[in-house]
Every structure is written in structure tokens, then in C-alpha cells.
From TrEMBL:
<keyword id="KW-0378">Hydrolase</keyword>
<keyword id="KW-0238">DNA-binding</keyword>
<keyword id="KW-0540">Nuclease</keyword>
<protein>
    <submittedName>
        <fullName>Restriction endonuclease subunit S</fullName>
    </submittedName>
</protein>
<comment type="similarity">
    <text>Belongs to the type-I restriction system S methylase family.</text>
</comment>
<dbReference type="InterPro" id="IPR000055">
    <property type="entry name" value="Restrct_endonuc_typeI_TRD"/>
</dbReference>
<feature type="domain" description="Type I restriction modification DNA specificity">
    <location>
        <begin position="4"/>
        <end position="174"/>
    </location>
</feature>
<dbReference type="InterPro" id="IPR052021">
    <property type="entry name" value="Type-I_RS_S_subunit"/>
</dbReference>
<dbReference type="GO" id="GO:0004519">
    <property type="term" value="F:endonuclease activity"/>
</dbReference>
<keyword id="KW-0255">Endonuclease</keyword>
<dbReference type="InterPro" id="IPR044946">
    <property type="entry name" value="Restrct_endonuc_typeI_TRD_sf"/>
</dbReference>
<dbReference type="Pfam" id="PF01420">
    <property type="entry name" value="Methylase_S"/>
</dbReference>
<keyword id="KW-0680">Restriction system</keyword>
Length: 180
């Protein structure tokens, strides 16, 4: 399989999140998901977020609105390297760098690629600073190797089917725990 060396920024637009002013209560409590590292990042897709924004809150950070199928990578602190994908328009705080993949990349493939990159970034950041952090520039310039789109689709299909099975098992286990 032939791989091409590129930078993360070649995959798509890289967006760093932003937090609306918390001193303005009217920014919070709406219908727009606001993803932070305190949310459960153990799933492939963004879960129900603990915080939401109103339209007023969105207007403060509107350039940071991510479309569905964006890939969010936590880039600071103990959660550095955790990855989730958006299913609906979402805002993240500044602890995330997110990728809005362009058409030459399969979104699911980008998610799986970033799970590997995230682990490596986590390791590298812990060896260089007291508080692990990867800024937008370092993240965007990080080199990865990727196959062509057809191979990406095949890889993503296999890994997604495994993730679907894992998620089904999680739900079954959850139901068994409730019944017990």
C-alpha cells in the first residue's frame, strides 16, 4: 500500500475552539452542544455534552462552529490525545483542535488516524512540558502518512464495523447492569 506523507493541515481546516464568556449567563443553556474535556470522550461520536450554548453564546464564537463529521482532538492536559467526532454542529472549548476534513479524506479514517496521532502527541507532550499541551501550529504541522481515498474507505469500513460491535456490546452490558 502506497502512503503519502502530509501535514494534518492538508487533511482539512484546523479549528481551535473557544469559550464564550462565562460571566454572561445568557450564553449557556441552549441547544448547541459545547464540548469540553470534562465530557465523556470514550466514544467515537460526541456524546450528549454537559454544557450547551444559546444562539447568543454561539455568536460570541461563531467562527468556531464545527459541522457534523468534524474530528476533535483534545490538545492539553491529562486528556491530551483523546478524539471524538461530531454528529451535529458543535462548539468546542480552546482545549481542542478540530479538523473539518476536505473531500479527499474519509471522515471515519481521519478519526482513526487521529486516535493514533493523539497517543503519539500525548507521549511527546509529556516529555517536554509540565502541563502537556500541543498548540494549533504544532498540531497542524504534524506529519502523517495516508493512503488514497479508496484505501481510506476500506480501512474505515473495517474499523467502523468493529466499533459498531463494541458499542452494541456496551449497550447490552448497560442493559444487563440495569436489569441486575
Amino acid at each position: 500500500m502506497e502512503l503519502k506523507k502530509i501535514h494534518i493541515s492538508d487533511i482539512g481546516k484546523v479549528v481551535t475552539g473557544k469559550t464564550p464568556r462565562t460571566s454572561i449567563v445568557e450564553n449557556y443553556g441552549g441547544n448547541i452542544p459545547f464540548l469540553t474535556p470534562s465530557d465523556d470522550l470514550s466514544y467515537k461520536s460526541v456524546p450528549k455534552t454537559s454544557k450547551t450554548l444559546t444562539e447568543q453564546g454561539l455568536n460570541e464564537v461563531k467562527n468556531c462552529l464545527l459541522p457534523p463529521h468534524s474530528v476533535c482532538v483534545s490538545c492539553i492536559g491529562s486528556d491530551l490525545g483523546k478524539v471524538v467526532m461530531t454528529l451535529e454542529p458543535t462548539i468546542t472549548n480552546q482545549q481542542f483542535n478540530s479538523i473539518i476534513p476536505n473531500r479527499q479524506f474519509n471522515t471515519d479514517f481521519v478519526y482513526y488516524l487521529m486516535t493514533l496521532v493523539g497517543k503519539e502527541l500525548n507521549y511527546l507532550s509529556k516529555t517536554s512540558t509540565a502541563v502537556p499541551i500541543i498548540n494549533k501550529s504544532s498540531f497542524s504541522n504534524y506529519e502523517v502518512e495516508v493512503p488514497d481515498l479508496k484505501k481510506q474507505e476500506k480501512i474505515a469500513s473495517i474499523l467502523s464495523s468493529l466499533d459498531d460491535k463494541i458499542e452494541l456490546n456496551r449497550r447490552i452490558n448497560g442493559n444487563l447492569n440495569i436489569a441486575a
